[in-house]
Amino acid sequence: MSDMNTAERIRQELSALAKFSATEKGVTRLPFTKEAAAALNYLDKLMQEAGLTTYPDASGALHGLLQGKGSQRFVIGSHYDSVVEGGAYDGIAGVVCGIEIARHFAPQELPFSLEIVAFNDEEGVRFGGGFLSSKALLGELQPEELQNYRDTKGISCYEAMQEAGYAPERLSEAAWDKDKIVGFLEIHIEQGARLYKEHLPLGLVTGIVGMRRFDIQLTGRADHAGTTPMTLRADALAGAAPFILMAQRAARERKSPNVVATVGVCEVKPGTVNTVPASVHLTLDVRSLRAETRDAVVAECFNVLEESATDNGLRVSWQEKLSVAPVNMDEGLRERLRQAIHEENVSYMELASGAGHDALPIARKLPAAMLFVPSKDGRSHCPEESSRPEDFSRAVDVVIRMLEDWSN
Ligand code: GLV
Ligand code: MN
Ligand code: MN
């Protein structure tokens, strides 16, 4: 394997990892499933082959350490979970790139250690939250909170962790000693079309949108669709409609590509043709580069929801599942990366991220930076997701150059 070039190795590894999926269509690798365990097992082998000492943590992340001379660490990572029927690159490509970077240096001793991390549950698809490992590593998640996150079968994140052989009660032991971390870097696919349209192989991220996520329950009453007059209904779906449209309108009115609102889940019960909808479960995901805008959109949506619930005789309850403020990437790290990009003679642009990343919560506590690799046609969170191995390889070279410059 040692004479294989980086791009070819990345291609092969990503193609092998894509097979750890619960669906034939695209990649479905949800946290604490057998597919997740199989992917981790494969990553563990890759890390060890690359010369890293590996260790899991209680959040389900995998770490690979290349011991350096001092006690300080530079961390590189991304997530290994996916959305439902997602692609073969989102998250996992950044883990594979991190391993390539470490492989280049091993067994050489840098002035600081390199820690490569495969984070778990960044997407929040199974339990509704997200950033599980990154928050645990930052010491921002307590074991009790894991009971509040449940999947559609009612299994809590806490229970799923136990079921998968982890010890959720020991979550706090996963926390990093933040004083020892000199920086964090995440390589990720852009998931939008800006680099692809501009034919640029690399993006340097300026900042990441802040996000808020909610779980919403509207409860009305099941009644006969033929015999119940329109005035006597408590139709939960009709009550949900103005809220769904408001999410679209409130975000569109801002006229900024970085302000978005999505109702991604709408589960109607009993969900039959001749019964008035008794209840609706919705999710809301709102993002903006400005916290005030994000919060204003959220407020507009919930005002309409309250009004509509009253008009339709519904009960409403909601839970906020995630709230992360927008962040800027660290200017010092960005400058180091700019320098390395120039030295490697790579054309690039600086751009903001509309997608969430582990670098989002991390950048609030540690110097963090991100590099983007183009996504074909800007497609992501779908099976069509595609990026070129040579673009990942170029990003890897840039980071190697940055670390070499830093070490000299
Ligand atoms: C994660 O991919 C997100 O932006 O939702
Ligand atoms: Mn994603
Ligand atoms: Mn991702």
What order do the helices and strands come in, and which of them pair?
Layout: H1 6-18, H2 34-49, E1 53-56, E2 62-66, E3 73-79, H3 92-105, E4 113-119, H4 132-137, H5 157-163, E5 181-189, H6 194-198, E6 202-208, E7 210-219, H7 236-253, E8 260-262, E9 266-269, E10 279-288, H8 291-312, E11 315-324, E12 327-328, H9 331-343, E13 348-353, H10 359-363, E14 368-373, H11 389-407
Parallel strand pairs: 3-4, 3-5, 5-14, 6-13
Antiparallel strand pairs: 1-2, 2-4, 6-12, 6-14, 7-10, 7-11, 8-10, 9-10
The protein binds glyoxylic acid and manganese (II) ion (2 copies).
Glyoxylic acid (GLV) binds at residues 123, 355-356.
- By CATH, the superfamily of the largest domain comes out as Zn peptidases
Beta percentage is 15-25%
Q: What is the CA-CA span between the terminal residues?
A: 29 Å
Categorize the overall geometry. Answer: globular
